[in-house]
Design the sequence.
């Protein structure tokens, strides 16, 4: 039965916000966190790793996973309470209770509303349990806004029966309040303190702000502060209360009933969080809304007489952030990027956490070093380790399959960009912040190197980016953004037969049309919604496709009760007749294998099938059919539509070809499902409302479990750590090989992580793993990685988390499109630029930014004297602040020694009096390293038979300018040039002409292949004898570009098979006279 199967999360980390940490009352290893969109997570190893604690929460309301409160009964820790909701919206709040440690959760009576993803969600809990009377609960809510008014839907309530019933307390005060925190006095549980802050909707404010003290014994409520209180905490001497306000910090003395004047250390706004140390009086911590990146983490050790500030955005402080290996393939946040507070472990206060989640074990002493306390980026005394493994907080929007390779797909995510996989989701690789909101990414079926991605930037303008190299780099094909008047580009399709024919669906805002198409690869656009009468088809945040296309390039769209279709040559869209009147359509999809067939659902127990103009019905096992998915082999999956009142929860059903419907398990799936799509006949991806994406394999012929989360990390120039999730009791076999290697290196019975050493720098490796279980062997899981450049240059650690990056570098005619890279990128393994000594090198620099404040400063250094360092005397660019594209001309002295020179370019947001060195650590920007080949005029002449080095063929190809001709010294006639290190990659337009020298042979004696002619390059080879390398496919030449051969003779390598080929042609091959392929 399918219900025995389990959904597995695709391992994507780093999005969303952790809004609170709650500690087990007696077990120091158990910690819980609540999140704004992904429910709860639990750690059993002291906060080092996490698993979802919300899998058993009912899936009858998407807001069940916007967590606002979590409380543990100190007397019976298996009893817990969880509040969720979407205030100020109505009908979205619940209180759940478990008495078995989270195995089952039951919805209990809810007297209020909660805001798990709204204002002040980072404040402390508003549901508390009496420390000695477990049945006595108190809860404060957040009010709702309806019909232009704040409703009496919040309040402060009391239960004496464990949440079965509730009584309002001082309803007139709190029924329309936005309560931010509720706490018992640490030494007197008869006293409860309640804080509230003003929230506005449509410029209408809530009714209450301040801090109140409620005496449960007498029923007396008195207000002790009448301004906004975002958060408050008790000093270790509990007669003092510290209050956080936007205006600053107050301290209330319960003994004297006096409030201190406002203090505002470092002139920061402390409207975000505060925390008092649990045992050291006067030791408090504060942080503002934008966290470390603006105001730092502020500490006082003496009750506010003096303050320290530490920032982890640059300098040596940044070096104290520790990112485990799994961060290499994930969105890696800056310290404080997702934080909502600092938490000291109550059972071990030397351990502290920042939401996000970062952990330190240095909290026994001050966070600030006294060596240089006022140098805010070089004064930290605490290390922090990112401990977010297993936390899947992602507002995921779509899964977009690749048109050719079923192992490749993209997951589009709001806020952090997109993730990409090449191995069916086993390894999810973070591709960077191409767009702040990534809605859809698609590659062209006729040329998968060409792709487009759409979404928006932080300024709420629709955006489109294009790639011509399979996603390695992206750029805007438009001179100016045509879609500035839109909120977001929400949907995207590419014509199967032409990669330059693109259609987008637009959330309009100011644009006059809602569908546009391009005939030239995105450069220009024209309206394409003629004939559509339905308005507002495309809206941001939707996770299913409203612009769809079948295998015959017929486009479809739908909204409300309207469905339309249009071919590329049609003058307008045609309305499809509705089979059931004017009922709203829940979803419509195309059959992936049969053009002209659609499936559609409305709110009944049927699935409607459109077959080239004729409607029929398929009985559905649901009461109300909602989303549907169809596999290439005809498997259907349908989901029961949830009902937000709790009367109906989501359920899944599957119908395989020629079989009946049967249940499909939801086990392991976090959150509510928003959409689903097959990537092949058996694998189904489900998009969660806030917990990323999950995959289930509906059927398999192999009972062996596949390894999961198979990836390489911790990669340097000669080693890599390989990770995978173990199945208990299974034996694994790990295999890998480099791009120039014919045979696999086999590692029997490895354990994760396995450290591979002795690798070659700048080399692409493929790897695969299988598992033995009983008498069966699983299918291989495949993945890949590339080693880095071997470098002795200093590292750099800038942070671009605040949306500043190097978008493009143009050196001469060579384009380097990198986009956002998390702070650093090294191009040395991928490409280089040549310049002849004595000439001028032109550099054009394009900044990327998402903030409104966008002045940036550029620096560049070239190691011209080859000493392995960038001296300040070698700084060749130092710009003034500017937000536009900058162009610089750099003369290269004619006496500069030939060879590779390392160049570093740094860009950072402008701050006054900043003067960077090449090795400085900084925030708000990005650094990229390049290789500049300085060549002399005669370097294109081959003078010896060496594999590499001065005078070699390899060196001549490397140093030649674009369009040059390589020639051979007459003394080389009859000589053999042995290629022994690696394939010669030709990455420029080039002619290799040996016709004036007699009988020159190129021998791939110990490599797999002699030449690789790269994509888009025009290459001509004349008058050579070529003995292949050992590869059986294309041992002489792999042509990916435009190759012309004339008077070239090919010979097999003794190590090749009898049926080996000497030329592997994936490009354009022109054969002129006298080209022969011979035996050995």
Sequence:
């Amino acid at each position: 039965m399918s219900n025995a199967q389990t959904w597995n999360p695709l391992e994507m980390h780093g999005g969303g916000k952790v809004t609170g940490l709650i500690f087990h009352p007696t077990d120091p290893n158990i910690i819980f966190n609540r999140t704004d969109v992904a429910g709860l997570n639990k750690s059993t190893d002291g906060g080092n790793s996490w698993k979802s604690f919300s899998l058993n929460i009912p899936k009858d309301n998407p807001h069940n996973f916007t967590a606002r409160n979590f409380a543990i009964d100190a007397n019976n820790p298996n009893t817990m309470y969880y509040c969720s909701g979407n205030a100020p919206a109505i009908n979205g709040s619940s209180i759940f209770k478990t008495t078995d440690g989270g195995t089952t959760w039951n919805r209990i009576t809810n007297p209020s509303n909660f805001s798990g993803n709204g204002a002040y969600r980072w404040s402390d809990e508003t549901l508390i349990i009496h420390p000695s009377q477990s049945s006595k609960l108190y809860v404060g809510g957040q009010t709702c806004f309806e019909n232009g008014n704040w409703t009496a839907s919040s309040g402060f309530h009391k239960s004496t029966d464990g949440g079965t019933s509730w009584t309002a307390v001082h309803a007139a005060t709190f029924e329309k309040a936005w309560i931010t925190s509720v706490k018992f006095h640490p030494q007197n549980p008869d006293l409860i303190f309640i804080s509230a802050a003003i929230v506005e909707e449509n410029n209408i404010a809530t009714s209450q702000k301040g801090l109140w003290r409620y005496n449960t014994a007498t029923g007396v409520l008195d207000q002790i502060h009448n301004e906004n209180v975002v958060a408050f905490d008790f000093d270790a001497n509990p007669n003092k209360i510290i209050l956080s306000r936007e205006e600053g910090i107050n301290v209330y003395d319960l003994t004297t009933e006096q409030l201190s004047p406002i203090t505002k250390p470092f002139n920061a706004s402390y409207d975000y969080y505060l925390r008092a140390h649990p045992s050291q009086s006067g030791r408090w911590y504060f942080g503002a809304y934008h966290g470390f990146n603006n105001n730092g983490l502020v500490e006082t050790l003496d009750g506010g007489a003096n303050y320290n500030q530490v920032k982890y955005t640059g300098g040596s402080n940044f070096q104290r952030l520790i990112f485990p290996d799994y961060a290499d393939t994930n969105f890696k946040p800056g310290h404080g990027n997702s934080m909502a507070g600092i938490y000291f472990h109550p059972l071990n206060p030397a351990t502290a956490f920042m939401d996000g989640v970062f952990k330190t074990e240095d909290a026994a002493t001050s966070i600030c070093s006294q060596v240089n306390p006022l140098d805010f980026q070089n004064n930290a005394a605490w290390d922090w380790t990112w401990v977010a493994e297993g936390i899947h907080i992602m507002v995921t929007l779509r899964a977009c399959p690749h048109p050719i390779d079923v192992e490749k797909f993209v997951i589009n995510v709001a806020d952090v960009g997109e993730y990409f996989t090449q191995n069916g989701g086993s390894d999810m690789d973070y591709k960077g912040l191409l767009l702040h909101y990534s809605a859809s990414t698609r590659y062209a079926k006729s040329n998968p190197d060409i792709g487009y991605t759409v979404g928006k930037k932080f300024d709420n303008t629709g955006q489109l980016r294009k790639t011509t190299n399979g996603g390695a780099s992206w750029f805007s094909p438009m001179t100016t953004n045509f879609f500035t008047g839109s909120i977001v580009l929400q949907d995207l399709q590419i014509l199967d037969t032409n990669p330059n024919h693109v259609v987008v669906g637009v959330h309009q805002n100011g644009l006059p049309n809602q569908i546009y198409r391009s005939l030239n690869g995105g450069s220009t656009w024209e309206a394409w919604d003629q004939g559509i009468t339905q308005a507002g088809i495309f809206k941001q945040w939707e996770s299913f496709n409203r612009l769809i296309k079948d295998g015959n390039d017929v486009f479809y769209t739908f909204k409300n009760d309207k469905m339309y279709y249009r071919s590329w040559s049609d003058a307008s869209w045609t309305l499809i007749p509705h089979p059931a009147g004017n009922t709203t359509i829940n979803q419509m999809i195309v059959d992936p294998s049969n053009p002209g067939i659609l499936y559609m659902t409305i709110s009944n127990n049927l699935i409607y099938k459109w077959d080239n103009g004729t409607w029929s019905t398929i009985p559905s096992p649901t009461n109300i059919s909602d989303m549907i998915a169809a596999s290439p082999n005809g498997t259907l999956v349908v989901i029961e539509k949830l009902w937000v009142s709790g009367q109906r929860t989501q359920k899944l059903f599957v119908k395989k070809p020629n079989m009946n419907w049967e249940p499909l398990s939801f086990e392991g799936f976090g959150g509510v499902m928003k959409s689903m799509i097959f990537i092949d006949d058996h694998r189904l991806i489900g998009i969660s409302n806030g917990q990323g994406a999950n995959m289930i394999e509906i059927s398999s012929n192999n009972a062996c479990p596949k390894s999961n989360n198979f990836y390489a990390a911790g990669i340097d120039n000669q080693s890599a750590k390989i990770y995978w999730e173990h199945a208990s009791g299974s034996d694994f076999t790990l295999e890998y090989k480099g791009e120039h290697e014919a045979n696999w290196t086999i590692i029997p019975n490895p354990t994760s992580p396995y450290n591979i050493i002795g690798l070659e720098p700048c080399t692409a490796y493929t790897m695969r793993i299988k598992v033995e279980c009983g008498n069966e062997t699983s299918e291989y899981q495949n993945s890949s990685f590339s080693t880095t450049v071997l470098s002795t240059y200093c590292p750099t650690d800038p942070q671009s988390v605040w949306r500043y990056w190097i978008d493009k570098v143009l050196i001469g005619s060579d384009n380097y499109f990198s986009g956002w890279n998390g702070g650093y990128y090294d191009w040395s393994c991928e490409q280089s630029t040549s310049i002849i000594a004595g000439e001028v090198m032109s550099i054009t620099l394009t900044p990327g930014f998402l903030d409104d404040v966008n002045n940036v400063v550029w620096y560049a250094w070239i190691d011209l004297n080859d000493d392995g360092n960038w001296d300040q005397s070698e700084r060749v660019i130092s710009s003034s602040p500017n937000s536009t594209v900058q162009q610089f001309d750099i003369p290269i002295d004619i006496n500069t020694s030939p060879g590779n020179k390392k160049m570093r370019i740094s860009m950072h947001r402008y701050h006054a009096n900043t003067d960077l060195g090449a090795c400085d650590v900084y925030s708000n920007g990005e650094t990229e390293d390049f290789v500049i080949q300085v060549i002399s005029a005669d370097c294109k002449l081959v003078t010896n038979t060496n594999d590499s080095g001065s005078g070699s063929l390899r060196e001549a190809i490397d140093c030649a300018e674009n369009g040059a001709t390589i020639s051979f010294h007459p003394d080389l006639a009859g000589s053999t040039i042995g290629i022994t290190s690696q394939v010669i990659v030709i990455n420029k337009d080039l002619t290799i002409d040996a016709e004036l020298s007699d009988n020159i042979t190129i021998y791939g004696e110990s490599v797999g292949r002699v030449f690789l002619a790269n994509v888009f390059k025009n290459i001509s080879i004349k008058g050579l004898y070529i003995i292949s390398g050992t590869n059986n496919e294309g041992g002489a030449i792999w042509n990916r570009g435009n190759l012309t051969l004339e008077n070239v003779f090919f010979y097999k390598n003794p190590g090749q098979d009898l049926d080996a080929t000497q030329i592997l042609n994936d490009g354009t091959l022109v054969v002129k006279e006298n080209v022969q392929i011979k035996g050995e």
About this structure: The two ends are 58 Å apart (CA to CA). The chain has three helices and 93 strands. The helical segments are 171-174, 315-318, 953-959. Residues 873 and 996 are 45 Å apart (CA to CA).
